[in-house]
Write a structure and sequence with these properties.
The complex is a heterodimer of chains A (457) and B (841). Chain A has a domain of 48 residues: Arc Repressor Mutant, subunit A. Chain A is built from 25 helices and three strands. The N terminus and C terminus of chain B are likely disordered. Classes of the chains: A mainly alpha (457), B mainly alpha (841).
Chain lengths: 457, 841
């Protein structure tokens, strides 16, 4: 199963600290030799300021050897840097913690700066010191502290580049501390920042590098957001909403087709929720159809058991192959860092998808055969099917004939008048809208003006 | 032959010697006829020179006198004509007079006072005549009046021209006449001296070669006499240079002179200068636009360009540039004379390389592609390729980015469309040459690697035209190597289809070639739908050959072309060996159309739906074949495909397969066997689909195993195909697993029901049309009213999708169909090259 492991492909798109959980997960799954993974962990930790962690890893790795001297030196340096940076930032921290100040701060950043400068004699350098301090906190693993500092920094600073950087830092902190709500908010604002950058930077001299930058940022967002989306309760739906939007779909297809695995899984997982939540957007409702289309086009670039499962099921309609792929996919899902928790749910939904497709195509189904398709024993299969019929509204159409051990499905074709009604639905409304549109050309032009901006995103 | 050459030869030699003796006098801007005249005179004199030296003087004198006499005679005629008021004669004579005087002044002789006198008197009488004319209108006939008027203009003009002299003359006629008389004396002496110098030179060389007197040696004498010193090289060079482009210059002669010069050139500087002149004079040899350069000259030029490059590459102290500071052409220059240690010479190697390549293409365009000559000529591509690579190596080492990009583009053009074997052959010649560019086949191991490396360089270049063409070549190369997905992604990501219509014609041709090759690639890979969609655009225009620059415009499609357009189009034609076989192309297109269209035809049952056509050209052919009363055995590719389509419609997939596989043109594809196998498989599948569509109404159940037997497909494939059709709601049926049959639930619609459906569709259409109309009227792209219902949402998504990459194969290629089709249709014929291409993103 190691060949389906994506850690190696994903890690280059993650922050050093974000890679730790992934590696820790790899230790658990034992896909790779443990000492290899530990060596990787150690190498990773060496580059950070988390000296103690690195030392403990080293001890695990080489129980007999002496701990290299460089660590003690490094620790001292880290401590001293920490103190220095803290002193630099302290002035500002004192001011901010003052409740009066918090009240006096306004929306306008420039005004705030002015205010702070006049009242407390704070300069831009000091604010930047806050950023440095936050960053340093992050490097030695104090994520919640770092999140705080970076948040304050962002409130005050006007420097765009540093602000974006602080955004990323804050997101990483939130992910690492597991505050998924805040992380989600952070992710959304960050996405806005990245997406909105295009119009302004289009004016800049080097358009190509700007769009390239944007592509990079989006690729990173896609990877980072996996943490959030697979942990937040609403995450899967949001993932589909985001990743299936044209810009991100393009990004994924261009630079990281392996993310298709996560979209596919999310689409399968969201099956039930999508059916139950009526207000989900059409994108989520038709996510499976969309993703199958994408999987088909990208087949030459990327495929794994999960995508092949969907392909076999919805493109080839080869239920045997789909079942084979499902067995594989189940293991892949179980081993995947992000998907591991959803194994049961995934299996459940995947089975549902299979039986749905199966029922739609067949008229008379042998229960034994269907159970086999679903990797279930005969009795289990029967139970499952009964549940299925009860859950969905197939009750009127499907009946189990226990004597012959078959399910009979009688689906009456859609009556003609129904389809005519379907076709003419909304025509009156559309015509009405047409009329209002004609009456208010001015308003329309205003809307037209706002439209392109939306489109540009 | 020799006589003609001799005339010309002695002409040039005499003018050389003349200029040698007297710098002032050698005014080379003298008109052609005069030079010739002089030449003839001088030659005749040199023939009898041996006997009588005095003769020279006499003859010279007589010409001078003759000229003056002539002028005077003309004046007399004019006087006579004036008396009878015949302005036509006056006008003619005056023209003659002007010419004579012009000649006189060209010979640096003063203007004869007689002319000035005539001019002023003419002015007077002209005024008088005009005054008279005004008084009595009927007096003159139309011709005469016109002549009078033109005379007025002419006189005014020449008076202005000779204003100073006329004034001088009017002030003091005597003095001027005296001066004129005086001046003629030294001039005569000078001429005599010229002759004597020439005499000396000739006698000097006659020692070496006293016998032959034919043209070649004559020149040799003249030339050689001056080539002994380095200084003289430049003088000769200058003379040759000056004579360049003149009407009566013998280009072959010039080349020979330069070749001789090259032999004696000693320093690199001299070599470079002579080579530069020699190569350009070789290219000059053929001035007409249509014919091509003689092949031996081309080869010589190729060698010389090689030589030039190797000299420049060897010695970095010399640099050939298009823009240099002015320098004295007649002086030898070396490192010491130059301030910064680099001798800069005016010239352009890259344009030589370009020209060499262009001439090669031109010759291939003109040679009959089915003869052996063509093959022989093609062999020269190897040397050309080597020269290009050599130039590339040179520019790489000297780090000149702009010409380097151009030369790399040339190299790329030679290899991008060739199969691996040919590229290997071309590249193998490189290993033997002493200088090799940074990127070779050896260094990049595969041809794709080589093309990739070359393209990468061009992508970084500033020149957007080169970038565009590089990416197109790259895509073409990928397509040629059956790498469909990469090629398609590159094409779509380049967004070229949006801007290609504003590119120059050659780039458009390259684009068309690339798209077509992509379609063929899809076909070879078995991606029938993609192949059909890609090739569709170009076939609907019905001008495939023209769009690929593989045949000229056909008259019936457009109004008459001007001769220039026709010539330009002819010049754009690609040489035969890079053609994409249009018959193969058509076969691929029609077969893929058949596979897409026939099941579709079978699936529709009402007349309304029949109008939805995917492939118009195919449908047209099919209708035509249907109307045929008798059909014979198939002959052409089209016949084969049409009969195969019919067989497929009837469910006889085996016959269809045999017909398709017996098409001979497939053998042109490198992967014949696999392509045929693929086609057989597709025909089986589509045959099954067609069969189901056609015969479903007549069955309630059909056994799956029977179907699998009939179409010799595995049961699993049959099941999966039927499942797919059921899932996509193409077929209203369901499978019965236990008995292994497919059950059809066909519902017969009553007439009113059917009509109700039709009218619902039509109402829908109408509303959509209305919305579109309003959109257009309001000028917005979408959304005049925020409807917010599902429809609006869907629509927004559609537009986004069109932009998106997700739906590329269908949305991307087919979505742009209409636009691109019209772009094809707007045609290359009436668009002349030279438009700047739009920047490709």
């Amino acid at each position: 199963m190691a060949e389906y492991d994506l850690s190696k492909t994903i890690i280059p798109y993650l922050d050093r600290h974000l890679a730790f959980p992934l590696l820790a997960h790899l230790v658990e799954t034992s896909l790779f030799p443990v000492n290899h993974v530990q060596a990787a962990q150690y190498e990773l930790a060496k580059g950070t300021n988390m000296v103690d962690y690195a030392v403990s890893l080293f001890e695990q790795l080489h129980p007999d050897e002496e701990i290299p001297d460089e660590f003690s030196g490094k620790r001292e340096r880290a401590v001293s840097t920490n103190e220095r940076l803290q002193q630099e930032a302290q002035a500002l921290l004192d001011v901010i913690e003052n409740p009066d100040v918090a009240q006096a701060l306004r929306q306008d950043k420039n005004q705030n700066l002015q205010y702070l400068k006049e009242k407390y004699d704070l300069t831009l350098d000091q604010i930047t010191a806050l950023y440095n301090f936050g960053q340093f906190q992050y490097t030695y693993g104090n994520y919640s502290g770092a999140a705080d500092y970076l948040y304050h920094f962002r409130v005050l600073s006007t420097d765009n580049d540093l602000n974006t950087s602080a955004h990323w830092g804050k997101l990483a902190c939130d992910i690492l501390t597991g505050k998924w709500e805040t992380a989600l908010e952070e992710l959304n604002t960050l996405r806005d920042v990245v997406d909105s950058r295009s119009p302004s930077s289009l004016l800049a001299s080097s358009t190509e590098s700007a769009s390239l930058n944007q592509l990079h940022s989006r690729t990173w967002i896609v990877h980072w957001s996996l943490f959030v989306y697979f942990n937040h309760p609403q995450g899967r739906t949001l993932l589909l909403e985001t990743f299936l939007s044209p810009t991100y779909l393009n990004t994924i297809q261009t630079s990281c087709p392996w993310v298709l695995r996560y979209i596919a899984t999310a689409a399968i997982l969201s099956r039930k929720s999508a059916a139950s939540i009526t207000n989900a957007s059409s994108r989520v409702r038709h996510s499976i159809r969309e993703i199958v289309k994408v999987i088909q086009t990208e087949e030459y670039q990327y495929q794994d058991p999960i995508t092949s499962f969907l392909k076999e099921l919805y493109v080839e309609f080869d239920f045997e192959a789909a079942q084979r792929e499902l067995t594989l996919a189940e293991r892949v899902v179980a081993d995947d860092f992000f998907l591991g928790e959803f194994r049961e749910e995934f299996l459940d939904n995947a089975r549902y998808l299979i039986s749905e497709a199966y029922c739609r195509i067949h008229q008379r189904i042998d229960i034994g055969d269907l159970s086999e398709r679903l990797n279930l024993s005969r009795d289990e299969g029967e139970k499952w099917i009964v549940n299925l019929i009860r859950e969905t509204r197939m009750g009127a159409e499907a009946k189990i004939d226990l004597e012959k051990n078959v399910i009979e499905i009688h689906r009456s074709p859609l009556p003609v008048y129904q389809s005519v009604i379907e076709k003419t639905r909304g025509l009156a409304f559309r015509t009405q809208a047409l009329g209002t549109g004609m009456l208010q050309p001015h308003q329309a032009t205003q809307q037209n003006q706002s439209q392109p901006v939306e489109g540009a995103r | 032959m020799s006589r003609f050459l001799r005339t010309a030869g002695s002409d040039s030699s005499s003018s050389e010697s003349e200029s040698d003796s007297d710098e002032d006098e050698s005014d080379m801007s003298a008109g052609g006829p005069e030079a010739k005249k002089k030449g003839r005179f001088l030659r005749s004199d040199s023939e009898d020179e041996d006997t009588d030296d005095e003769d020279v003087k006499h003859v010279v004198k007589s010409t001078k006198d003759k000229r003056v006499e002539e002028i005077e005679a003309t004046g007399k005629v004019m006087d006579n004509a004036l008396k009878i008021n015949d302005w036509v004669v006056i006008s003619a004579e005056f023209d003659k007079l002007l010419r004579l005087v012009q000649r006189q002044s060209n010979a640096a002789e003063p203007i004869p006072p007689f002319f000035l006198k005539t001019l002023s008197s003419l002015e007077n009488s002209l005024n008088a005549a005009l005054a008279k004319e005004k008084e009595a209108k009927k007096k003159m006939n139309a011709v005469n009046a016109r002549a009078l008027n033109s005379m007025k203009q002419k006189v005014k003009k020449s008076t202005k021209e000779y204003e100073k002299e006329v004034h001088q003359y009017q002030a003091d006629p005597e003095a001027l006449e005296r001066e004129f008389a005086l001046h003629s004396q030294p001039a005569e002496a000078a001429v005599v001296k010229t002759k004597k110098v020439k005499r000396a030179a000739e006698s000097g060389s006659e020692d070496e070669d006293p016998v032959t007197d034919d043209h070649f040696t004559t020149v040799g004498k003249g030339g050689k006499a001056m080539q002994f010193t380095a200084d003289a090289i430049f003088k000769t060079l200058k003379l040759v240079h000056d004579a360049r482009g003149k009407k009566n210059t013998d280009r072959g002669e010039q080349m020979r002179i330069l070749e001789k010069l090259l032999e004696v050139a000693a320093t690199p500087y001299q070599c470079i200068r002579v080579l530069l002149a020699l190569v350009s004079s070789r290219f000059d040899y053929n001035s007409s636009l249509t014919s091509y350069m003689p092949i031996d000259f081309w080869l010589a030029a190729e060698r010389e360009v090689d030589q030039l490059i190797s000299i420049v590459a060897r010695d970095s102290a010399y640099s050939v540039q298009e823009n240099t500071e002015d320098y004295d052409e007649l002086l030898e220059r070396s490192l010491d004379t130059e301030p910064d240690g680099v001798v800069r010479i005016r010239g352009s190697i890259i344009s030589f390389v370009d020209r060499l390549d262009d001439e090669f293409t031109k010759s291939l365009q003109n040679i009959d592609p089915h003869g052996t000559e063509y093959i022989d000529r093609l062999k020269d591509e190897k040397v050309l390729y080597r020269t290009i690579c050599r130039a590339q190596a040179f520019y790489e080492s000297s780090q000149q980015q702009e010409p380097l990009a151009r030369v790399i583009m040339r190299r790329l053009e030679h290899i991008y469309s060739k199969p691996d074997a040919v590229v290997n052959a071309l590249e193998s010649s490189l290993s033997s040459s002493e200088v090799s560019p940074s990127v070779t086949l050896a260094s990049s191991s595969t041809t794709s690697g080589l093309v990739h490396a070359l393209c990468i360089y061009l992508y970084k270049a500033d020149n957007s035209l080169l970038r565009t063409r590089a990416i197109l070549s790259h895509i073409y190369h990928h397509a040629l190597h059956n790498d469909f997905h990469t090629a398609r992604d590159m094409l779509l990501m380049s967004h070229l289809q949006e801007s290609i219509h504003s590119a120059d014609v050659t780039t458009q041709i390259l684009y068309n070639r690339t798209v077509v090759q992509l379609g063929l690639c899809a076909f070879r890979c078995g991606l029938i739908k993609e192949a059909q969609a890609t090739l569709q655009d170009i076939f609907t225009t019905q001008r495939v050959k023209e769009l690929l620059a593989q045949g000229v415009h056909q008259q019936r499609f457009q109004a008459q072309l001007t001769p220039e357009q026709e010539r330009a189009e002819r010049a754009r034609q690609l040489p035969f060996h890079v053609h994409i076989n249009t018959e193969l192309l058509e076969a691929a297109f029609l077969v893929s159309s058949m596979l897409v269209e026939i099941p579709l035809l079978a699936s529709i049952d009402s007349e309304e739906q029949k109008r939805k056509v995917i492939s118009k050209p195919f449908r047209r052919l099919l209708d035509f074949a249907d109307r045929q009363v008798f059909t014979g055995p198939p002959e052409s590719t089209r016949d084969h495909i049409m009969q195969a389509s019919k067989a497929l419609q009837d469910g006889e997939w085996e016959k269809c397969r045999d017909l398709i596989q017996s098409i001979k043109i497939w053998s042109l594809m490198p992967e014949v066997v696999s392509v045929k196998e693929m086609l057989a498989k597709r025909i089986q599948e589509q045959g099954l689909r067609t069969y189901l569509f056609t015969y479903a109404p007549y069955y309630t159940t059909l056994s799956l195993s029977l179907l699998s037997q009939t179409f010799s497909l595995p049961l699993r494939t049959v099941t999966s195909m039927i499942s797919k059709m059921i899932w996509n709601e193409e077929l209203s049926a369901s499978l019965d697993q236990s008995t292994g049959v497919v059950v059809f639930h066909r519902i017969e619609l009553s007439r009113p029901q059917q009509l109700a459906q039709v009218i619902a569709d039509k109402i829908n259409n109408m509303v959509e049309q209305n919305e579109k109309g309003l959109d257009i009227k309001l000028g917005g792209i979408s959304g005049w009213g925020d409807r917010g219902d599902a429809k609006g949402e869907k629509r927004g998504e559609q537009t986004q999708e069109r932009r998106g990459r997700g739906d590329r194969t269908r949305g991307g290629l087919r979505g742009g169909t209409r636009g691109r089709g019209s772009r094809f249709a707007q045609g290359l014929g009436n668009q002349m090259a030279g438009q700047s291409s739009q920047r490709a993103r």
